[in-house]
Amino acid sequence: MSTSPQVIANRVPRHVAIVMDGNGRWARARLLPRLFGHHRGVEAARRAIRYCSRAGVECLTLFAFSSENWKRPEEEVSGLMALFMTVLERETTGLLKHQVCMRFIGARGDFSDTLQRKIAEVEAETRSCGGMVLQIAANYGGRWDIVQAVQALVREVQVQGLDPSAITEPMLEKYLSTAEVPEPDLFIRTGGEQRISNFLLWQLAYSELYFSDCLWPEFDEKALQQAFDAYANRQRRFGMTGDQVSRSSSHA
Ligand code: IPE
Ligand code: IPE
Ligand code: MG
Asked: Whose CA is nearest to atom 10 of ligand 2?
């Protein structure tokens, strides 16, 4: 029996999660301000959204701002907030046209009232779109997500008078900010770093990890295709043996 990784033709990930890293270094290499790199990063994000939507991806999660990114210089943080606002104002029409449903995950209460209102508006406007779900992780942290889910679960446990030993993984999962979408199949991080940086900690348990040295503003359709091809050539075993997986997929 073959032990080589199984190739399933046209295997498209249902959920792709991307850490869009490298904007600052891209700009610095060109002696430009870091914010210029973030502006270019928006173009790369638009490319990725279009590509994934056309490929039939059900959900795309983009890490736009981590709960730790507030530590950056004030000028960069306020520039990013202004950029979020501009992008939201500009992109809603395109999202509606392509039936992309946009949702935000993260502690949105820390954003300005204006930005929070805009976020709610875009979510409401695209709610009934039947195409790809686009999740923007903004002021997001994987630890934050788990803690807020635990808080909600503890409330449920108290109200229902449940014994803690009755708590199961699905019970916690239903309170995670990503409860409505499947777990990421493919995790991509650009920019050469090989770390999670507090992204979807719980949800990445069995995702295929793909790291690229390419800086985010330069991550184009060809680079995305390479990531998808790499994914299609992986054998996902979920704890089983390779032979077990081969047998079950040949019976599918
Ligand atoms: C990622 O690019 C975008 C955000 C964190 C908002 P960086 O800004 O982290 O770029 P580098 O890592 O400094 O190059
Ligand atoms: C992760 O990138 C967050 C986003 C891409 C939004 P960072 O650039 O903030 O990660 P670290 O600090 O290098 O780990
Ligand atoms: Mg970075």
From this structure: 197
